[in-house]
Amino acid sequence: MDTDVFRVYEEEIQSLEEEINLLAEQYEDSQQESTIFSDEEILKSIKSFQRGFQGDSIGCESLSNLKAQLESLERDLSFLVKFTGVQFTSHSKKTVEKTRERTVQKHRLTGNFHSLSFHLEFQLLEMQNKESVSAVITDLSITLESEENSDVSKFVSSTEERGDLLTFFRSLSSYAEWHVHRRRTFQHFK
Hints:
about 190 residues, alpha+beta, 2 domains, four-stranded antiparallel beta sheet, 5 helices, extended
């Protein structure tokens, strides 16, 4: 009877150790992730920064410089979104492996192309020699909101195989731009 109780306790201890290891990994992952902050979070940070420099004239000057820089960056971002039609809604990056010669990072991107939503996951392998740094995309996975057309799913599959993000963004840009127009036209004829 004592061995049964002892075995039950050992199993419970082992289960708790596994859970602790899993939670430690999740905590480490969350510490390494970097995400794009929402406008509300940026404004909260600015307001807390402003409170820290109230009454300090040097702080006010740097605060006004920061405000001007932030407004300039917001204008630039708005222009790029209008110009390209690409709006990233979230990004996370996790370093998987890092040595002197090589770095492997896992990236996750979510965003919109005009009205098409997309989600990308890929690993970026950066190798450094004495003269240069080279980067290679591996394990590319692309998910589109709707893959109504088999040609688009074929295109996505071939892009995933080649790991060519530049071609993906260039080609999908024109497709997504006209996606809304095609949808309206088909709705009109229904």
